[in-house]
Amino acid sequence: MKLSVLGAAKEVGRSAFLVTCDSTNILLDYGVLLKREPVFPLHVRPKDIQAVVLSHAHLDHSGYTPSLFLSSSSNVSVLGTPPTFELSQLLIEDMIKISGLYLPFEYLDLVNMINHCVNLNFREKHHINDVNITLHESGHVIGGASVIVEHNGKRIFYTGDINTRGSKLLRPADLDLPEIDLLIIESTYSQTDQMPREESERNLLDFAYEIVEQGGTLFIPAFSVERAQEIATVLKTHNFKYKVAMDGMALKVNEIMLKYTSYLRDPEIFRKAVSEAEWVRGWHRRKKLVKEAGVIISPAGMLVGGSAVFYMQEIAHDPKNGIAIVSYQGEGTPGRTLMDKKIVTYDGKITKCLAKIRQFEFSGHNSRRELFEILDRIKGNPQVLTVHGDGNSCIKFAEEIKEKYGFDAKAPSQADVIELV
Ligand SMILES: [Zn+2]
Ligand SMILES: [Zn+2]
Description:
By secondary structure, the protein is α/β, with parallel strands linked by helices. The chain is about 30% helix and about 25% strand.
């Protein structure tokens, strides 16, 4: 068995790994790196691949999969959970609308891909020739999975994006694992400790009350998958007394998640949170909403598009309003500029933000301490690859793993091939 690193090497984005077992070739994720123009993982020939396993719907894991279906005769199976497929379709469709010009595939190829999806349950073994694939719940987004690949008595465990503490919406990752020979572990926050979740929730709630009780509107730009729903659920769990509205693609995600509540930790509180929130429909309502006291949750999380752009402009010019940043803000995005410089940029225009801006940590990833807890629990003496982090996070993490556990750990480069002997 051997593993080729096609992406996510010392970077967050374009996760893609090729597992080769004799004549069977299986991809673990096939994502894009989202920049001004999307960047892709290394190329594979679809006719050489039997299956691609999607760990979860985020575009950095799923976004390049339609490129395997440019030919109508493509025979690649797409393995994952039903929510992963529905959310991937939604996110990829949106990416085609926004960045279609830069992509080598179009909507029809996405449809072709969806026609090749095979639903898997967690902990159920799926056979492809003499290779076994098993998904374990990853706690990161609804339907998200870590993946075990077994062949000839050797095992690979790929964490995907993982959250072992769980959240208001999701159960913690399932780490009940057999012995592992190769561990591929995400490194996103390997060098940063995060604030305890309860503290973030408390702080967000205090800020929401402060703004709304002085008659202002609190705008919370949030990623449409998971974060928007998590924030609505946090407010509901703490019995937040004022109006909460949700808008944009988060509403489509609400609908999908309502179909799959068995994947959630507490379906009841989720149902209550989204059904009691106002689902904003149309510009007429939107324009009124920004003048009312209450909370508005809307994508895009980094303020790059969607109704969030309108909300940001409207909310920014009144000092009694607030903006709560709850999602990661990439370099060069309007969200990052707002956070760092307190200015609103849109269409080349720059205005000062008078509304109060606060940042809160609501990551769907393990913190540094929790990443090490995974290593504490791993059985066997595995080789370790640290991926899905910036250069420093991957390299330092590998050094620390080597030192602390004696495992053969490294931060691989793109195109590296690792043999499992
Ligand atoms: Zn993710
Ligand atoms: Zn990711």
